[in-house]
Write a structure and sequence with these properties.
InterPro entries: GlcNAc_PI_deacetylase-related, LmbE-like_dom_sf. The chain is 41% helix and 21% strand. With 217 residues, it is of the alpha/beta class. The protein has a single domain, classed as 3-Layer(aba) Sandwich (Rossmann fold), CATH 3.40.50.10320. Strand 1, helix 1 and strand 2 form a beta-alpha-beta unit. The longest helix has 18 residues. It is globular and about 50 Å long. The structure holds zinc ion. Zinc ion binds next to loops.
């Protein structure tokens, strides 16, 4: 069965960008691994502090809802994620042990510095055909450079969008911070817009960095 590695700079990133797709892979019996590169805790612009343990617990709850096989936590500080050096070897080791068929992370032109770093790490680790399918998830529309994201791969998530939303709700601190059901409504609307492109009710979409035919033929 194919194996999928989703790598977020922060807890909750991959649920927002690819939660419906991950749930769909899991329903097909694929093994999905989630790697979270930073320890999660941070203080926001209003001075509210979110603690590592809180975010980690929320990540575990969300992963249970999606059906993720294993969550791997790295411990880099939020906003200080390096894009090179030993972190590349550390993610190399994860890829060597999991041997994923699909690697999903952020988009290189995302405006969050940690997201950009994660995209660079994914590209470095996927060198020389080590991972056949490499995908960048969509930047969220409130980021100023969302138009740099050019999706080519659309996934019908009509059957898994409710699982995605429950996984987002499991991040109780972030769900409240971003407006609770208003956040859910916005993410749902985004999926509906992406679905419109290809005639699905709801879709997630990805920019293809590399794709072979192994999952199709
Ligand atoms: Zn993030």
């Amino acid at each position: 069965m194919p194996k999928i590695l989703a790598m977020g700079a922060h807890p909750d990133d991959m649920e927002l960008e690819a939660g419906g797709t991950l749930a769909k892979f899991i329903r097909k019996g694929y093994d999905v691994y989630l790697l979270i590169l930073t320890s999660g805790g941070y203080t926001d612009m209003k001075g509210n502090t979110y603690f590592d343990e809180q975010l980690k617990n929320e990540a575990l709850n969300a992963s249970k809802i999606l059906g993720v096989k294993e969550v791997i936590f790295f411990d880099y500080n939020t906003t200080e994620l390096p894009s090179g050096g030993k972190i590349v070897s550390e993610v190399d080791s994860i890829v060597d042990s999991i041997k994923p068929d699909v690697f999903i992370s952020h988009h290189p032109f995302d405006s969050h510095q940690d997201h950009k770093a994660a995209a660079d790490i994914m590209f470095a680790v996927s060198r020389q055909g080590r991972v056949k399918n490499v995908l960048s998830g969509s930047t969220l529309p409130y980021r100023p450079n969302v138009f740099a994201f050019r999706p080519q791969f659309f996934v019908d998530i009509t059957d898994t969008i409710d699982i995605k939303m429950d996984a987002i709700r499991a991040y109780e601190t972030q769900y409240s911070k971003f407006g609770s059901e208003e956040l859910i409504e916005r993410v749902r609307a985004m999926s509906k817009t992406h679905g419109w492109a290809v005639g699905y009710e709801y879709a997630e979409c990805f920019e293809v960095i590399r794709m072979d035919d192994s999952l199709w033929i």
